[in-house]
Amino acid sequence: METLSGGQWVASGEWLDVHDPSDVRTPVARVPALSADDVTRAYDHAAKGFAVWKRTSPFERARILNGAARLLRERAEDIAADLVAEMGKTRAEATGEVGKAADFLEYYAGIAREGYGTLLHDVRPDTRTSFQREPIGVVLAITPWNDPLLTPARKLAPCLAAGNAAVLKPATETPIVALHFARALHDAGLPAGVLNVVTGRGSVIGDALIADPRIAAVTFTGSNEVGEGLRASLAASNVRFQGELGGKNATAVLADADLPAAAKAVAAASFGQAGQRCTATSRVIVEAAVLDRFTELLLAEVAALRTGPGAAPGTTMGPLVSPRQRDGVLADIDLAVKQGAAVLTGGDRPEDEARRHGCYVNPTVLADVTPEMNVWRDEVFGPVIALRTVGSFEEAVEAVNDSAYGLAAAVFTQNLTSAYRFVEEVECGQVAVNTTTSGWDVHHPFGGFRDSGSAFKEQGTEALRFYTRVKTVAFHFGHPHG
Questions:
Q1: Catalytic residue positions, numbered
Q2: Predicted confidence band at 1 (pLDDT cuts at 50, 70, 90)?
Q3: Is the pLDDT of residue 481 over 80?
Q4: How far apart (Å, rounded) are the C-alpha atoms in residues 320 and 146?
Q5: Percentage of the chain surpassing pLDDT 90?
Q6: Cα distances (Å, whole numbers) of residue 380 to 178, 202, 275
Q7: Cα angle at 245 between 239 and 249, to 5 degrees?
Q8: Alpha carbon 253 to its chain's center
């Protein structure tokens, strides 16, 4: 596949192979491995594109975003197939992601038609003052492999709706559907240079990506290690940084909870996308009085899962994205066992012929977990649940907050007081009551506290704060001052 730069589909002398995580033996596609000079040319195009796009009517921007959404929906079958092939999601998960990407474009197309500003009172006579929001310039978007279509849509839809240009760097493991997204925008009439996609090895193009003086903002989703490195590298510049980083999301199951509903929700939040969601539940905190019954129900939900290739009928949990990710998750499980955790189910990888060439980890539930264990504190990003018992509501809240992260949390209870207290007391950006830690919609502001990210939220109208700057304007319409 070629990549988009300056309104043209371009290749390079070198290529990156893309592998199917359900069977890594044969590449399923290849994309250009661009050079540092190619990156600089992408910024050249973005600067020219921004000069055009910022003066483009918001109604025309909305028309193009809606057109791209329509093309995504029309092409959903092919895009979903490529998403399954490069990332390993189930067909249902991939199809849902295509629809959600289109939702982002349509949502921000509607917002593009509205003004960004407010009329203000002014103490001066015969004066009307207002503030307006305007685009900031060229934005670098660095997106991860776990939601390789949805995350570019989450970032680029508000970015483009506000009138900015962008350079998109998709993950090397999953660049194909990002190129589908770019093609939909291109085919819908996006002017040349407004969106440019850079595919390549970070070791080759990383410096050129970050150091270009034309960058106004960097939006990043990925690991804390990389995110904090980006933040540090930008600290001496006047470049905005938005980071959606790690999480160690917890669900608390109180003694009065609807236990079957809680078990079903925890299994969905923990093992959907094989646990490779930033909002996946990875810690489950259960009041001691219901631990045995809840554990029994949870293990029944896990037993009903069917692990296999995402395209295979009946599969409910696909592979992890790569051998490296698989091996890292298995190492985390091994360490937990050495530190005293008990494996209630899973803890290993399938060894049958049909799956042994894939990146599978069996869905895993660990019991006897204590706060001192790594599995309680470190993000695993795989299909692993750490179970911990507490004796009261207060201990449950304390356990939820016992983390460097603060992305998402949930509580299951039938007590309204407990529900409201939980919402008030947990230190997380997303809080759910009697539902999953995952599943936030396009118009819901999204982002975490603490080490889970930066102050800028994604999604909803809050996203526009990152992609715009504020200009305050005063008009005096009375007689000139003499």
A1: 244, 278
A2: confident
A3: no
A4: 9
A5: 95
A6: 25, 23, 9
A7: 150
A8: 26
* Torsion angle, alpha carbons of 74, 151, 471, 127, to 10: 60
From 130, 64, 436, select the one nearest 264 (Cα to Cα).
436
CA-to-CA separations, 289 to 174, 250, 262, in angstroms, rounded: 44, 19, 15
Tokens of 29: 């596609």
Strand ranges across the sheet with 342-345: 342-345, 364-367, 384-390, 281-287, 249-253, 408-412, 430-433
Structure tokens belonging to residue 110: 């509607």
Q: Are 139 and 164 in contact (CB under 8 A)?
A: yes
Residues 6+ apart with CB under 8 A from 97: 80, 83, 89, 147, 149, 150
Burial of 229 (0-12, 13-18, 19+ CB in 10 A): middle
Q: What is the value of pTM for the model shown?
A: 0.96
pLDDT in tens, 18-39: 999 999 998 999 999 999 999 9
Instruction: Show the 3-state SS of 431-456.
Output: EEECCCCCCCCCCCCECCEECCECCC
